[in-house]
Amino acid sequence: MVIAIFANNTKNFIIREFTSEDLDTVIWINRTVLPENYPSFFFKMHHERYPKAFLVAVINDKIVGYVMCRVEKGRLYIKKDEEGLLGHVISLAVINEVRRQGIGKSLMINAMNNLYKYYNVDEYYLEVRISNNPAIALYKKLGFQIIKTIKGYYLDGEDAYVMARTAPYLETEDN
Ligand SMILES: CC(C)(COP(=O)(O)OP(=O)(O)OC[C@H]1O[C@@H](n2cnc3c(N)ncnc32)[C@H](O)[C@@H]1OP(=O)(O)O)[C@@H](O)C(=O)NCCC(=O)NCCS
């Protein structure tokens, strides 16, 4: 299902839900772009459980990016004293050739919208390498704040920031 169509001054792209035919390409993008790689069952499992929160970006029938999320029950990060549902962004990637065209942002906004609409989440959160300035800038632009640092979170020993924000993401916040 196509969720959104974007036309900007460089390229047109669409955001749609992931389908199982996309699996090989998504795994390829994940391995090309990110050091955190997962076996195919991990992608399939998230698609089965949270199909509305696993989206791809497409240009001329070619997948150029994806976002994969899940929903967790637990202590909220912003409303610290409350329990609730958290939309956890597990993996986000856009291929190098088409970066800085708003694709990562659109994937995130559409995933956040669907996490709220279909799974009723109270907050969104994610982990990000403390050196990953492009991603941190994107998440800050989307209203995420740094909640804490997890020492040695990644396999190579790098620390992670946990970043979170409340749901929903409002259209009026888009800038
Ligand atoms: C992070 C990533 C998904 C961003 O994708 P993208 O499509 O290039 O991002 P967008 O074009 O939507 O950027 C939106 C905003 O984020 C910020 N941003 C994105 N890339 C940035 C960069 N390299 N430097 C500074 N700010 C950046 C900017 O505020 C940008 O808005 P602007 O272009 O109007 O200034 C992409 O760089 C990527 O795939 N990186 C490797 C994988 C990764 O790090 N994933 C996240 C793991 S937590």
Gyration radius, in Å: 15 Å
Across the major sheet, the strand order is 1-2-3-4-5-6-8-7
- Helicity level: 25-40%
Quick one: biggest sheet?
A: 8 strands, mixed
CATH class category name = Alpha Beta
Order of helices and strands: EEHHEEEHEHEE
Structure, explained:
This protein has 175 residues and is an alpha+beta fold. It has one domain (2-173): Aminopeptidase (3-Layer(aba) Sandwich). The protein contains 4 helices and 8 strands, in the order ββααβββαβαββ. Strands 1-2-3-4-5-6-8-7 form an 8-stranded mixed beta sheet. Bound molecules: coenzyme A. Coenzyme A (COA) is lined by residues 33-34, 92-94, 99-105, 128, 132-135, 137-138, 141.
Task: Outline the fold blueprint.
Blueprint: E1 2-7, E2 12-17, H1 23-33, H2 40-49, E3 54-59, E4 62-75, E5 83-94, H3 103-119, E6 123-129, H4 133-141, E7 145-150, E8 160-166
Parallel strand pairs: 5-6
Antiparallel strand pairs: 1-2, 2-3, 3-4, 4-5, 6-8, 7-8
The protein binds coenzyme A.
